[in-house]
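Technical note accompanying the year-one report. For the benefit of new consortium partners, we illustrate the data format agreed upon in the data management plan: each record pairs a sequence with a structure-token string. No post-processing was applied to the example shown here.
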Amino acid sequence: MQPRLIITVNPGATTTRCAFYETNNGLVSCTAGEVIEHSDSEVGRFEAISDQLEYRYQLVLGFVRRHINGENIPRLVACAGRGGMLTPVPPGVIRVNDDLVRFSLETPVYEHASNLGAPLAHRLAGVYGVEAFIADPVGVDEFTDMARISGNPEFHRFSFVHALNIRSTVRRLARLLEKTVEELRLVVAHLGAGFSIAAVDRGRLIDNSNRMECSPFTPERTGGLPPVPLIEACYSGKWTKAELLKKLYGQGGVFAYLGTRDMREVEQRIKKGDDNAALIYDAMLYQVGKAVGAMAATMDFKIDGIVLTGGLANSKKLTERLTSKMENLAPVFVFAGSNENQALAETVIAALDAGGQYMDWPIPEQATARYNARQ
């Protein structure tokens, strides 16, 4: 079979990562990739994230055209975008249609640059005459009934997790250990601008430290906060809702304490003797360790390993510190980077090769009924 191509698009707050992947004899490899940087001044021109669509699309289209002449790519089989802030969905691949584009742009659960993934892929797919897909968006929800109990029936816990990279990393570890995904019980810590600490029980993401609820603080997010002071802040009149949300999500965490989101800068400050930077750094890792222990508890501490992944896992200092904290609980494995474009390509190709095992938006009622009943 002739090698096939797939284009992937992964929009983040300050970058859009684009790539071509080739699939040949069951292997998926990157043939071209680019990280398009967006300065604060560039994205700051737009009132809403959805307003950035045309701006980012032209940049992505420019990347594609630098590698492909004309609008005929015979080997192209699909375009894949990072899934945005959707309502709870089962894991897997979702075909992008006009309804999903509208939902992503107009009524997402939360505002985030990933909401542009489906619209960008859809526009590219229209140009080149193929289908567009997303895979394992953050709304993937496989919680157990017990995990949904919060302590008050008015407030149900729900899943919000870096499902794409976590599920891909679990598959990579299974191949490394020469086991199946269904044989492994793991805690996976995705550590980037946002954190997801997830319990993965034989392939199912049964619980996670929802980054909107009880996650450790991150380079730019507050994670879980004491509820009473937060309620008092909401009613204090000092901040609008939008201002408070920004303080929690984007201007919280390490940034709120140290004025930077760049953990490389923080590590340099520590190296130069900055005790306050060291305290905040250590507190972040302390909270990560607590969250890993909590997720291990959901499987009665009978786990096969702990996985560190995401952009911060590129830091040797950080992974060594976390490993020393947790290695008595289970072996620690490191898969640095988010690898989301690779995961998109692999997941979508696998669905196409399996005879079109993907869902259409909106997800059929029978697949989402157990989630919707709890919202």
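Partners are asked to follow this layout when depositing records. The longest strand covers residues 27-37.
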